[in-house]
Amino acid sequence: MSGRFAFSKGLKEVRFLFCQTGEHSAATRSFLLRNYPAMKKDNPATPILIRDASGTPPKVYARFEFGKEKSQSLEGLSDQQIEETVSSLVKNSS
């Protein structure tokens, strides 16, 4: 895939965790509202899970082949920084 959010071939799942009302998750909510359609369009077979729960700090998880999982905190990041963080995480399976 040549899209902006083309995931690596070894990526099996992406999970976003955040608070549905907290200010610390506002940039994550904004990022997902703006970019979820593009991510899903570029990667229709990869599950993109969105988990919101009160008081949960924003974080993204990427699960790769053989159960390998990486995560990155999104707390305190701007919308643009979140985009860079997610892009880096989902393209780098090593």
TrEMBL record:
Q: How does it sit in the membrane?
A: Peripheral membrane protein
Instruction: Name the predominant localization.
Output: mitochondrion
Gene Ontology cellular-component annotations: mitochondrial inner membrane
**Which SUPFAM superfamilies does this UniProt record tie to the protein?**
Thioredoxin-like (SSF52833)
The record's subcellular locations are: Mitochondrion inner membrane
UniProt entry tagged with the keyword Transport: yes
Origin organism lineage = Eukaryota, Fungi, Dikarya, Ascomycota, Pezizomycotina
**Ribosomal protein/NADH dehydrogenase domain: residues covered:** 20-93
Q: What is this protein called?
A: Thioredoxin-like protein
**A Pfam family this protein belongs to?**
L51_S25_CI-B8
Report if keyword Repeat is assigned. no
Q: Which UniProt keywords apply?
A: Electron transport, Membrane, Mitochondrion, Mitochondrion inner membrane, Respiratory chain, Transport
Q: Which family does it belong to?
A: Belongs to the complex I NDUFA2 subunit family.
Functional summary from the UniProt entry: Accessory subunit of the mitochondrial membrane respiratory chain NADH dehydrogenase (Complex I), that is believed not to be involved in catalysis. Complex I functions in the transfer of electrons from NADH to the respiratory chain. The immediate electron acceptor for the enzyme is believed to be ubiquinone.
